[in-house]
Amino acid sequence: MFAYFRxxxxxxxxxxxxxxxxxxxxEVSGVGYRVQSALATAKRLVQDDEATLYLxxxxxxxxxxxxxYGFLSDDERRLFELLRxxxxxxxxxxxxxFDKIMEVSPQNFLQGLSRGDEKMLCAYFGFAPKTAAKMIxxxxxxxxxxxxxxxxxxxxxxxxxxxxxxxxxxxxxxxQAREALIALGFDGRRVENALSVVVTQESSxxxxxxxxxxxxRELSAGASVS
Length: 226
What we know:
This protein is of the alpha+beta class. It has helices at about 40, 75-85, 90-105, 105-115, 120-125, 130-140, 145-155, 170-185, 190-200, 210-220, and strands spanning about 5-15, 20-30, 30-35, 50-60, 65-70, 155-160, 160-165. The longest helix has 14 residues, at about 90-105.
């Protein structure tokens, strides 16, 4: 029904006990809406400031009222809805998982999920092994489009303090190349430095294999596999 609301944050109510979540009152053209919120979202809002909340809706069974959940970007909304795909996971549990992921890195979570890296999901995000296995089983394939969206919008390489941005149309391939080389044992910083060199040298579209070969050439002088 609703895609997003843009209005003034008139009130933020913080959870008082376990099982509760934050609530935002957003005034839009004189109408006040109550929107449920993860802590990771509520902490970034300022009362009396304007905010845009991207909405996910949860309809209660047997004719109960519809609950709105608000997020500060459409990718964050999609991450929440991805978590809700897991069997037996309600909206409040999905909010809890969302907060854990936002504390670390949504992009790293999606990368770990796409690799099926159960140990990483447990170590970095604090998920129990059973939960991590359930996430991988349910969400691994579904995570790919969202991972590419995050990579396209947020990927950049840092070298010598200067940021080198990747063309958004190809950002997913550059990110995949980075992850593949790190998985082979190359140091992450050296991979990023080599990628930044290749980015500045290449003006045409490349396939993943071509990107990896060019970066490997950059790494060949002194790069070592651990």
